[in-house]
TrEMBL record:
Domain of life: Eukaryota
Protein name, per record: Protein ENHANCED DISEASE RESISTANCE 2 C-terminal domain-containing protein
Residues in Protein ENHANCED DISEASE RESISTANCE 2 C-terminal domain copies: 36-250
Organism the protein comes from: Brassica oleracea var. oleracea
Length: 299
């Protein structure tokens, strides 16, 4: 399991964390304006080892994944499937660090893309990475191998307003918890070395209203978000956090512009054009042969 400390953190992870447009700071930094960090896992309460009999929640303990990065981005359209693009920041950094054609040899990345309901299509994207082999049959393994129905019923979010105006605290509540797929529309995108969950917050009227309210105060907010897979049987207890992120006083003008949709469109157009040219060349090559072919009736 991954701890929240940086003692054994690989150099490449430190570098990737430091390269984002929103700087990564230590949790105890005094000036946290427009930054992100990793909060203590013990600030989150999860289902304890005997939860189904005693309903007791306990501090979460260590994370299962290591924090890898945080992106504050916007686009001409809603941003999705970010890790599917080799040009995306995290994907590019890993491809350059681990120069191999074997995706299975690369560290496995989990991305949570929170798509905000806004005309500028903002996304807050948290990235985490597994630095140890995944245990077969574990909840993480089941989640990755499970269908969308399993994912919808298990992925859980814990949200906490660490600092902000009373009206936002009141709207969100203390340590708001929800199974994301039951409350919001999600898209699950999987690759050989990553899984990305695109969460459309605008798909829920309630969530959309809360985010619209909070967005008006975003430059004053400090928010903790934790992600976990819900335990639904005794054997799966206690719950463990996949990872958590804290972002503080985000500035709208610091969001980096991305144009993944247009890039995707260009890639598709290029692919179809190549296919069309190839098919045309094939026909042109075969035409003389067809014209010179002697029919069986002429023999």
């Amino acid at each position: 399991m991954a701890s929240s400390g940086e003692v054994t953190e690989p150099e490449w992870i430190k570098r990737v964390k430091s390269e984002g447009a929103v700087p990564c700071l230590k949790p105890d930094s005094k000036d946290s304006k427009n930054s992100w960090t990793t909060p203590s896992p013990n600030t989150f309460m999860v289902r304890g080892p005997h939860y189904f009999s005693d309903k007791v929640k306990v501090p979460a303990g260590e994370f299962l994944l290591k924090p890898l990065g945080f992106d504050w981005v916007k686009g001409p359209t809603k941003l999705s499937e970010i890790l599917s693009y080799p040009s995306s920041r995290i994907r590019k950094a890993i491809d350059e660090e681990f120069q191999t054609e074997d995706d299975a040899a690369k560290p496995f990345v989990w991305a949570f893309n929170l798509q905000l309901p806004h005309k500028d299509n903002y996304s807050a994207v948290a990235y985490f990475v597994a630095t140890e082999p995944m245990l077969q049959g574990s909840l993480m393994d089941q989640f990755l191998k499970g269908d969308d129905g399993f994912k919808k019923s298990r992925l859980k979010l814990i949200a906490n307003i660490v600092k902000g105006p009373w009206i936002v605290r009141k709207a969100v509540g203390e340590q708001a918890i929800c199974v994301i797929g039951r409350a919001l529309s999600c898209k699950y995108v999987s690759g050989e070395s990553f899984v990305e969950i695109d969460v459309d917050i605008g798909s829920s009227m309630v969530a959309s209203a809360i985010v619209h309210l909070a967005f008006g105060y975003i430059t004053t907010l400090t928010v903790d978000l934790a992600f976990l897979i819900e335990s639904q049987t005794d054997a799966e207890l206690p719950e463990k956090l996949l990872g958590a992120v804290r972002f503080s006083e985000l500035q709208t003008d610091s969001a980096v512009s991305m144009e993944l949709s247009s890039s995707n469109s260009n890639q598709r157009s290029s692919w179809w054009k190549s296919l069309g040219n190839g098919f045309s060349n094939l026909l042109n090559q075969d035409t003389p042969n067809m014209n010179n072919t002697t029919s069986p009736g002429n023999n």
